[in-house]
């Protein structure tokens, strides 16, 4: 490929990362998409902040209001109630910390911070919503097979 003036071409709009699953409630999905939009446009602090907002909204949704207080306590509730694994809980902790830094002022949010934050958010949302949907589908299919004569 030949570049004019040695510069690579600029593609607009930038390519979006993999979209959040349709199984995620619309309001949470929109928060996650906002974070993705910020990421692809190179604005790291808002990307991390929106990812944190989506994570907290998912915690509130899945706990049905039973998990209260700070995001750390809500994540712990998800872990203790087997909605996320210990490993995913440990991975979500940096998302929480980076999100807090973005919200309340703190160290600069880097591109790497924003990318990692959104990747962890995607994994948490998949665990909370996609895994549940797949499990329900398998159970329904298994029940149907058992009933067949």
From TrEMBL:
Residues 35-121 form the DUF4145 domain. InterPro entries: DUF4145 (IPR025285). It holds the Pfam family DUF4145. This is DUF4145 domain-containing protein.
């Amino acid at each position: 490929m030949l570049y004019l003036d040695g510069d690579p071409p600029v593609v607009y709009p930038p390519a979006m990362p993999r979209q959040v699953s349709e199984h995620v409630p619309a309001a949470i999905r929109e928060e996650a998409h906002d974070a993705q939009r910020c990421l692809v446009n190179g604005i790291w602090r808002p990307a991390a902040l929106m990812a944190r907002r989506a994570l907290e909204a998912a915690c509130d949704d899945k706990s049905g209001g039973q998990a209260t207080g700070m995001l750390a306590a809500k994540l712990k509730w998800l872990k203790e109630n087997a909605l996320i694994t210990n490993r995913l809980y440990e991975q979500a902790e940096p998302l929480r910390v980076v999100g807090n830094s973005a919200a309340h002022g703190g160290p600069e949010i880097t591109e790497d911070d924003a990318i990692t934050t959104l990747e962890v958010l995607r994994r948490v949302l998949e665990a909370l919503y996609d895994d549940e949907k797949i499990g329900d589908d398998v159970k329904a299919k298994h029940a149907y097979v058992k009933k067949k004569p």
